[in-house]
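Here is a typical protein record:
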Amino acid sequence: MFLSYPGSSAAIRPVSWILYSRQSAVTNNMPLPTYCRRILFTLFTVPLLTQAQTVDEIIAKNIQARGGLDKIKSLQSLRVSGRLSIGGFRAAFVQESKRPFKVREEQILQGMVGIDAYDGKVAWHIVPWEGRKDPDLLSADDSKSLIQDADIEGQLVDYKNKDHRAEYMGHDSVEGTDCYKIKLTLASGDVRYYFIDTDTFLELKIENELNVRGTVRYTETYFGDYEKVDGIYFPFAMESGSKGDTERVKLTVDKIAVNTPLPDSRFTMPATGGNK
C-alpha cells in the first residue's frame, strides 16, 4: 500500500522544483555535496513529519466526532446491554466498564450467567454452561482482549501516554466506504488497525492482532448504527469474528447508561461462585 499525505503541499514536490533548487544552489556557490544532503533531508524527513502530523490530526478528528475529548474524559462508568447471536445461538449480554481499567462482561443464556471480568489487576471468569460455577483466574494470554475492553475511553485517546504507537497507513475501504487506516501498536506489542470513515471520522472497523501462546489471532469487528448518548456517539450494531470469516457474532445494543453507579465489587473476583 502506498502512503499518502492529504492536506500537505510539502509532501510531494515536482521535478521542476528539484531542478530549480539544484541550479540555485550552484548559482549561489553552495557546494554540491551540501546541496545533496539538504535535498535528501527534505525528501526523507518532510514526509515523516507530515505523516506524524496527519495521524494525530485524524485521531483528533475521530475523538471530536465521537463527542469531544472533554466529554469522553467525563466518562466514569458505562453500562451497555443488548442481544447477541451467531447462527442459531441467541443470548443477552451486558458490559460494564469503570475507571480506571475495570470491566465486567456477562452473557445470559437460559437463566445462566457467564462472566468475564477484570478489576485492574486480576482477570477472572465464570463459565456455568461448562459445569463450573466457581470463578477461575484467566491467564495473561486469555485476558488480553478483556483488558483492552477495560479502556473505557478507547485506545486512541491519549495513546502516547499509554505507550501505544500510531502510524498512518493511507486509505482503505470498508464495504465501499473510503476510510483512513491507522495502525496502533499497543504497549503489550499487540496490534490494532482502525478504519475511520473519511466523512464522519467514526470507526467503521477494527482489525485486531493478538499474540496468544505464540500464535497470532486475527479478528475484526464492524461498527454501525451510531447514536448519541449523553453527548457521545456509540455504535448500536456490531459484528465480530475471525478475519475473513463470514460467520460473525452479531451484537445489537438496546441501552447504554452513562456514569451510572457501579460498585467495585462488580469487578472483583468473588471468593465463591455466583454473581455479586
User: Anything to note?
Assistant: The chain has one domain: 69-266.
